[in-house]
Amino acid sequence: MKVLVVDDFSTMRRIVKNLLRDLGFTNISEADDGSTALPMLQGGDFDFVVTDWNMPGMQGIDLLKAIRADASLSHIPVLLITAEAKKEQIVMAAQAGVNGYIVKPFTAATLKTKLDKIFERLA
Amino acid sequence: MSTAMTGQISLEQAKSLVVFLEAGQQAAADAVIAEIQNPINSELFAEIGKLTRQLHDSLTNFQLDSRLNDLATADIPDAKERLNYVITRTEEAANKTMDAVEAIFPVVDTIAGQVAAVNPSWTKLMNNELDLTEFKSLCLDIDTLLKNTGKETHNIHRLMTDVLMAQDFQDLTGQVIRKVIDLVREVEDSLINMLTAFGISAERAQEQTSPKVGENLVEGPIVNAANRDDVVEDQDDVDDLLSSLGF
After folding, report:
1. I need a labelling partner for B197 at 20 to 30 A (CA). Which of B22, B153, B165, B179 fits?
2. Average pLDDT score over residue span A11-37
3. Could you please report the per-residue DSSP string of B186-208?
4. Chain A residues touching B230 at Cβ < 8 A
5. How many angstroms separate the CA atoms of A82 and A18, rounded?
6. Residue range B64-82: average pLDDT?
7. How does pLDDT run across A10-23, given as a tens digit for each residue?
């Protein structure tokens, strides 16, 4: 399974990558915001996107909307991992078609639970 | 201030003034005039006093303004540098820690793999079910395991010391952030003083404490979640909210 991790902080990308690797995801690419992520998604056969919300350039919510609006990408499950915690934002993400929402700071166990749930639903 | 009278001169004063002037007593007449003017002078002096105090206060406020100027041109750029230092140090610490942890993972996996390889034969040995060739092979495996574990635990110890040492960022960045907090407090005080000098109540500014939601939706980590009802406090709140939306 090919995963794209999108976050403007390299340390957070590294943490998420390590956690994903521990959960058996070995084919992981990185992007530092939505506008770098989108062409990567359009050019490669990614199966899953983990993205932050607040990033310079294109934000995670706009990346999510762009993915859902693109017929070739709209099937890709998207997990938001973000410090954004306003109820309004969570509702907005849900309406935009997010598959999971994790608030930072988070634990490895939370990530595992959400991933299991996402792939269980898709199966 | 003046004696009980409505005008600025009494009939007695006017009469005595005429008497002195008719008698050619100029000095005495001047004294009456001075007496008449006295209350007026007192009020004038009081007014001048008031103006002087206001001028003094205004000058003091101008000094505050020049402190604000220092804050804007020197202290705040310095604070930006300090906060950048915090970002750099915390990033370094996070990377140093992850370097060590990423180096430890495969070592631990190798040891776990060797233990798993030895385990079936070892169980057989404990149950007296192991033949001589198996025993010899087991001895070699255990020999490898012991030598490798001995070497790698030393390695892990060194890497864990690296993780430990990477935590020194907390002390250093804590000191820097404390200085920036002091600066922010000083700026706040200066601005409040300036508002007060201009007669604007500082209370009014506190009306809009929670940031407006709209185009600029992102806010970053919520530091006062307990005092707000527009944010979730933890992952459980997120899950509850999503499940209420049918997730």
Report:
1. B179
2. 94
3. HHHHHHHHHHHHTT--HHHHTT-
4. 86-88
5. 17
6. 82
7. 999 999 999 999 99
Cβ of A113 under 8 Å from any chain B Cβ?
Answer: no
pTM of the model: 0.71
What was the ipTM of the complex prediction?
0.87
Q: Which of B34-38, B111-115, B243-247 has the lowest mean pLDDT?
A: B34-38
Chain A partners within 8 Å of B233 (Cβ): 85
Cα separations (Å) of A84 from A58, A88, B138, B219, B235?
15, 10, 55, 6, 12
Which is it for the CA torsion B74, B76, B77, B78, positive or negative?
positive
Minimal C-alpha gap between A72 and chain B (Å): 24
Neighbour-count burial for B56-78, b at 16+ CB within 10 Å, e otherwise: eeeeeeeeeeebbeebeeebeee
Among A53, A91, A103, the residue with its CB nearest the CB of B234 is A103
Q: At what angle do helices B235-244 and A87-95 cross, to 10 degrees?
A: 50
